[in-house]
């Protein structure tokens, strides 16, 4: 049986190939962003030893990655982990769905750039009024947007 984590990089690779085949896309200027479960998929996909990918992703992969409030306990990212391209992880210190501590440790252990937004919860950037009514979530949302835009512009 094929594990779900094994097919995640294949899905991303398929999307990347599709985008690179379009005439209206700059082929070497494709980045990826994911939230929560999507961010977990990105962590697996960005590994220099992503399951299911046999060719060197460094030459053909995404230019940059943003992973917002991922879980950091998937089997596929345990042990030696090296993202093949720049990766920014953004997490909330009061996240009730995933372990902020585990993600901070994962980032520190693997030399990944991280931003920890204090007093913010999971889905801090959700557009619902109830979420954005929290000053901490609103500040984190604004900062995450600025950070994302500036990092993609620098790459």
Q: Which features characterize this protein?
A:
155 residues, alpha/beta, Rossmann fold, four-stranded parallel β-sheet, 4 strands, 12% strand, globular
Query: How many β-strands, per DSSP?
Result: 4
CATH topology: Rossmann fold
> H/E series, N to C?
HEHHEEHEHH
In whole angstroms, how far apart are the ends?
38 Å
Q: Total number of helical segments? A: 6
Low-confidence stretches: none
Q: Specify Rg, calculated over alpha carbons.
A: 16 Å
CATH superfamily: Alpha/Beta hydrolase fold, catalytic domain
Shape: globular
Largest sheet: 4 strands, parallel
CATH class: Alpha Beta
Overall pLDDT score: 86
Tell me the structural class.
alpha/beta
Strand line-up in the sheet with most strands: 1-2-3-4
CATH architecture type: 3-Layer(aba) Sandwich
- Which bin fits the share of residues in helices? 40-55%
Strand content: 5-15%
Q: In total, how many domains does the architecture comprise?
A: 1
């Amino acid at each position: 049986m094929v594990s779900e984590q094994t097919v995640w990089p294949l899905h991303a690779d398929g999307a990347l190939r599709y985008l690179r085949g379009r005439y209206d896309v700059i082929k070497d200027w494709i980045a990826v962003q994911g939230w929560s479960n999507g961010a977990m998929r990105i962590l697996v996909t960005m590994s220099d030893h992503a399951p299911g990918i046999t060719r060197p992703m460094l030459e053909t992969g995404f230019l940059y990655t943003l992973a917002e409030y991922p879980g950091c306990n998937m089997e596929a990212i345990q042990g030696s982990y090296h993202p093949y391209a720049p990766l920014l992880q953004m997490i909330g210190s009061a996240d009730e769905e995933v372990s902020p501590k585990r993600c901070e440790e994962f980032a520190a252990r693997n030399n990944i750039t991280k931003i920890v937004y204090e007093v913010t919860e999971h889905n801090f950037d959700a557009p619902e009024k109830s979420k954005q009514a929290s000053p901490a979530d609103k500040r984190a949302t604004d900062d995450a947007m600025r950070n994302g835009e500036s990092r993609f512009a620098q790459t």
